[in-house]
Structure formats: C-alpha cells, structure tokens
Write a structure and sequence with these properties.
By secondary structure, the chain is an all-alpha fold. The protein is built from five helices and no strands. It folds into two domains: 75 residues; 33 residues, no CATH class.
C-alpha cells in the first residue's frame, strides 16, 4: 500500500488519473441511481394519477365498462402489439397496411 501511495505522490499525472477515475465512477453511479429513482417515481405518480381518475369517474357514476374504455383509450400501443392484433384478425400479407393479400383472400386463392 505504501508503494502505491508513493507512486501516486511521486507523479502528478498518475494522481490526476486516479482522481479523475474515481470521480468518473462516482459520477456514473450517481447518474444511474438518479435515473432508476426517477423512473420509479414516474411510475408511482402515473399510478396515482390513474387511481385518482378512476375514483373521480366512479364518483360521477360511470360504469366499470365505461371506465375501462376511458383507461384503454389513454394508453399507447406498441407497434408490435398492433401488428399482432392485425394478424389475429386475419389482416396479414404483402400489401395494404401490413402487406397485400389478406388471410381471407389468400385462403380463397389457395
């Protein structure tokens, strides 16, 4: 350990590199921790907002089906989920939105 300290104190470049390395590691860790906390805080706030909205809709006398419709309308769908839904409906192929021939036309031509 003494040799390490002597090496650091004898050459200012090594000391500077060590200090900058430690600062970089601490900075990276702090940024990562802040990002994780912010992400979870966002999820908590979003859930609180949804619960408040649901409570308000219940107090107005809306039915569960109406509340579900409103809550689903506010959510964005991932593109992959939209494609999967189109495939389940039979709208797949090589044209149109997802391709040309849809499943029903393909089955009729086969």
């Amino acid at each position: 350990m003494n040799e390490f300290i002597k090496a650091l104190s004898s050459d200012p470049g090594i000391a500077l590199g060590a200090v900058l390395g430690v600062i970089g590691i601490i900075g990276f860790t702090a940024i990562t921790v802040c990002a994780v906390i912010a992400s979870h805080w966002h999820l908590v706030r979003k859930t609180e907002e949804e619960c408040d909205l649901k409570r308000e809709m219940l107090s107005r006398g809306m039915s569960a089906a109406d509340i579900e419709t409103v809550m689903r309308a506010g959510r964005r769908r991932a593109p992959l989920q939209e494609v999967a839904e189109q495939v389940r409906k039979g709208n797949w192929g090589c044209g149109g939105q997802f391709g040309g021939m849809h499943a029903k036309e393909h089955a009729a031509n086969s």
